Amino acid sequence: MIAMDATMMKTARQARRHRTGRQTHVMMRRCAGLYAAVLGVGVVLAAIGGGVRYLAMQGRWHVRIPYALDGMLGAGAADVESLTGLLLFAAGLIWFLAFVGPELCHGVNRRSLAVAPAACGVAAAALSAVAMTVLEYGLADRVRQGSAEVMAGASPVYGWWGNDLYQTPFSYRFLYAWQYVPASTGGAAKVSGIIPGGWLFMGAACFALMLAAMALGLLAGAAAAWACAGGVKRFALSVGAVVVAYVAAMRLFLFNGSVTLAWLAQAMTGEVVRYGSNWNEWHLYVAWIPFVEAVALFAVCVAVARRLTMRREVHAARRWAI
Question: Rounded to whole angstroms, what are the CA distances from 262 to 78, 253, 258, 272, 295?
Fold first, then answer.
């Protein structure tokens, strides 16, 4: 009798594991379709931005585009980092707000609903980083390889080696080892040439940025779905917490004149600023800093999103809308 009970329990566990694995594969396919659609929109928008910029550079066509779209496309040059990061963030929101509720009503395992966007998001971030690195490699001007002087007010990277069609202003800095800004020059700087392995460092930094944006999208989507499912009180408390955190962050890092905090904020992005004598500045670009930070942020966001998904319930009064 005991042996028969053990056999039945083992069979039940195997059946449950098989069902969960099948559900995970189905959710993977659906989530991959969502990320593919979102990145497809990004390709279209980037093509529009690059086309407008190219025609303007040729002097054959000038068009005024809406301010919001102009900001998204990097003020005339397509900032593909901001655009792709925003879309990856939006994909996480869409998944948890539009897909998870109906799947829960159909009995899909919660673990599958949390694992699928994490795995597909990592793949989407990696593909995006590879595509942007290849795009920059094909378009960037690599004639000047040694250190060079940069005029005051000019971009230390795009003023010399960048391209005017598509920009990756965060990750492109990691092609270089340093930038030296003497206080006596009023902003004129000297920048190192492209370092050996610089394109690998740029790809790692770009992947870190996309991974962080995707992870924050998962966290925001899971938190928003959890807040909306808890009634007016939970929603109001969640909105209040977000507002307080935003104000505190702005007050601490943006409106604070402390050199120590400014150094910390810059170092969090991989740009380590060292002040020498007479306030001369050395800007060092260290790619492993944002990479490690992004991996840690991803782990935390996925863990929290999974926890919120495991606790999420769909109220009977709201099932009619699904």
Answer: 28, 7, 6, 10, 23
> Which token pair is 81?
């980092």
pLDDT tens per residue across span 227-251:
887 777 787 888 888 888 778 777 7
Q: Are 88 and 121 in contact (CB under 8 A)?
A: yes
Question: How far apart are the C-alpha atoms of 61 and 57, rounded to whole Å?
Answer: 9
CA dist., res. 6 & res. 147, Å (int): 72
Tell the burial category of 67 from Cβ atoms under 10 Å away from its Cβ (0-12, 13-18, 19+).
exposed
Judged on CB neighbours under 10 Å (0-12, 13-18, 19+), 43 is middle
pLDDT (average), residues 256-272: 74
pTM: 0.83
Range with the lowest mean pLDDT among 181-190, 246-255, 292-301?
246-255
E strand or H helix at 251: none
Residues forming beta bridges with residue 178, ordered by sequence position: 284
Is the CB of residue 223 less than 8 Å from the CB of residue 238? yes
* Residue type at 281 in one-letter notation: E
Distance, in Å, from the CA atom of 65 to the CA atom of 72, rounded to the nearest integer, reads: 11
pLDDT digits (tens, 9 = 90+) for 298-312: 999 999 999 988 876
Q: How far apart are CA 83 and CA 80, in angstroms?
A: 5
